Amino acid sequence: MRADITLLLEGTYPFVSGGVSSWVHQIIRAFPEWRFHLVFLGSRREDYGPMRYELPSNVAGLETHYLFEPEAPPPLEVLEPSPQVMAEVEALHTSFLAGVPPAQAMARMASMYPTLLQGDHLTREHFLRSRAAWETICSRYKRFCTDPSFVDYFWTVRIMHAPLWKLAAIARNLPASRVYHTISTGYAGFLGALAKAHHRRPLILSEHGIYTKERKIDLLQAQWIKDNRNVFQRDPTEVSYYRSLWIRFFEWLGRACYEAAQPIIALYEANRQRQIQDGANPARTRLIPNGVNLARFAPLRAQRSTRVPPVLCLIGRVVPIKDVKTFIRAMRRVVNVLPEAEGWIAGPEDEDPGYAQECRNLVASLGLTEKVRFLGFQKVDELLPKIGLTVLSSISEALPLVILEGYAAGVPTLATDVGSCRQLVEGLTPEDRALGPSGAIVGIADPTALADAALALLTDEARWQAASRAAIARVETYYADQMMFDAYRKVYSEAMERG
Amino acid sequence: MAGIGFELRKLLARNTLGGVLQAYAYAGMIGSGPWVLSIIGILLVGVLASGIVVPPSLVTQFQTTVTYLIAFSLILTGGLQLAFTRYVSDRLFEQRDELVLPNLHGVLGLTLAGAAALSTLALATLFEGVSFAYRVLVVMAFTELAGVWVLAVLLSGLKRYKAIVLLFAVAYSLVVGLAYALAPFGLEGLLAAFALGQLVLLGGMWWTVARAYPSPRSVSYHCLRRRTFYPSLLVTGTLYNLAVWADKFLFWAWPETSEPVIGPLRGSLIYDLPVFLAYLSIVPGMAVFLVRIETDFAEYYDKFFTAVREGASLEYIQDMRDEMVYAVRQGLGEIAKIQFIAVLATFVAGPSLLALLGISGLYLPLLQIQVVGASLQVMLLAILNVLFYLDRRRIVVALTAIFLLANTLFTVLTLKLGAPFYGYGFAIALLTTVALGLILLDRKLDRLEYETFMFQ
């Protein structure tokens, strides 16, 4: 069935809950007049549980694809691809090498889309079985690979390329849609580029985090990527060959998406700059921050007691990226000065049980068992009236909804200087800044600064009230969901008209 | 014959002329020992009995009967031998040694029962005018032989080469000795000696396996399950043995080259003796084949696949492939050289050899071409062995099928063409198969890394 908007979702909605998924749910429900088609891309089927959201009635269809699910092997002997196609492949790969202008590489890449999409000139069978593919792999290994292990090179190349044919097939079979909208770069973003090339409809990109950057962090930490260089071959300043291969791969996928998408939407200014740095055309970039439902949170303000509760609350999953330990260490200092203070940690602990246990141990060893409480998953509506500050000790964030929800309920925030947090606390434009600080910003992994900033707000009634007022004004002026919906309505309408 | 390489390499590693000689002698002994011993044993029985057994045609009847027994038992069990050896070596690789004995019992039970049933049926319906004792002894001997082949190939799979040669030596000495003692009972006496010798051989081999691989279970048919059984090996083994005997059968069946010997069994006076003698000429070729393939080739084969698995560079993988190819080329070349010498020796010394053995010089041309044919058969064995190593079972099936077809076709042709062409059918069939085998092997080796990686 024909859809108005096809959403390309990699590893999120509707099977994984979290910030991006809630946002998608929010967007679909905001436009009941349009029909949505959902394309979920996952790694393997068993990595996902049941659906976490009830699909709104304007979702016309949901298709799920698993990029790393094993497929039936092709026959052993296959027809060889034509020499022209192999020459194109070779030229494309060569244009990815350092020193070639990205625009030229992008032009080559885009010129390959029809070959890939046609589905008979350059097939998965060709890639997996043909003598020509083998020879290309061998010659590139000999010319460029700095890691001695050929078998690892071989499998890296195979695993890296295998999803491309799945994506091409998905793109070919997508139902007709007026607009394609991808919520990340990466595989979904590349699918968007292919869908645009095949169906000749506009592609919109909304990035919450920066996919390529997050992938880079993952890849630099990944244990599964081999480094076979021995002590003498290894230069510690040089990233292992396979890591850099993967990083480059995602960088180019990202570029392909930036090249095809218009507009390229970021949540906040720092990310927009990052997109430009990664290859996005500045003229096509836009800022549309997340928004919260004021009608839902405004009534909570009335539920607050007149006195500021000395409660610091970290709302989020108990995982290392949230740096819960810094929050716990800060609590020791807060409690030393303000004995009635409490620290709450509201979020599921099942994602990284080892880390959660370490946090509990830390609480015990700092003698805070009476003061720091692990609440598990909580409804924010019930939580917000009871707390004095939302706290984010994270080492990485995008545009945290928790801060905005707290603002809407009149709760100031205490956050590390990551993502858009400074913008949310201090304001972005001069008018925004004029509203005053709606909390405080501290450096990452600095429990002393965190504690001191918390004490300053909680022990100074006037200061807290000023921050609370600034928070409410800021969220109502810049981060109301209605503003976000209006912005997206405009984006969608323009794209549909542009055709 | 996997695994013999270790002992050979030890001998070769001394790097002395003595060591090399010992290695080749050892390889010759274990490669050819069993059938050399059988051939010599049967010939000796004939020589010893010739004065005692009357009439002398009974000796011919004995030798013909034994030849048929060997031919049919090999054809019957040839497929099972390969399939079962593969099963055993796969299990040993998995270190599940306890599966060996019960599955041997399962396979042996089926083989013995099948052989007994088939031979009883044949003896009851086709053999008119022979004694009851003859029938019973033939059924016994046939059943035992079938078991002997299964065990012999299992023991070589288990690398107990010395035990095999030793047991064959003991068993055939016993056959010769008993034959001398029982010769007064005529044909039945000789057959009884043969059957008793085989019984000792069978028992000895079983005991060797049972002692080395004890198991709590007594019988299992695990090896016949679809996951562990390779039908292509069954086909290969059967086709190969049929092919090897095809020309002999045709010579026995062709009226002009054969005469009735006993019951439905016919023999070919002009063909059989040269064939027997020719097979003795391939001992050096077999020795070279074992030394070359099981040392250099096997070593680089291991290095190649270890390099693939454990992440060596492509250059190293290709080097190992090149070394493998070189070892194969070297091995085949050396077999060709040494067999060429054997052929030359037959041409030069053949006449006097035949004279010495009291055999008519008319046999000479046939002997010469048979030596060429048998030499080519060693080449074919070497090629098939390398293909087995590379696990290219489909090619092996194709090659053995072609061998069977060519041997049948060309032998019939030479029989029609007349006496001057006898023996050429076998040789040309082998030449064709070997040539084709070389081309296919060459292609496989050329595509080795490509197929190893891209066919995953």
UniProtKB/TrEMBL annotation, chain A:
NCBIfam families named among the record's database cross-references: PelF
Gene behind the chain: pelF
Pfam family, one: Glyco_trans_1_4
UniProt-recorded name of the protein: GT4 family glycosyltransferase PelF
Domain DUF3492 residues, every copy: 3-282
Gene3D superfamilies hit by this protein: Glycogen Phosphorylase B
UniProtKB/TrEMBL annotation, chain B:
Pfam annotation, one family: PelG
Biological source species: Thiobacter aerophilum
Keyword Cytoplasm: no
Transmembrane segments: 35-54, 66-84, 104-126, 132-156, 163-183, 189-209, 229-253, 273-293, 340-363, 369-388, 395-415, 421-441
Keyword field: Membrane, Transmembrane, Transmembrane helix
Keyword S-adenosyl-L-methionine: no
Protein name: Exopolysaccharide Pel transporter PelG
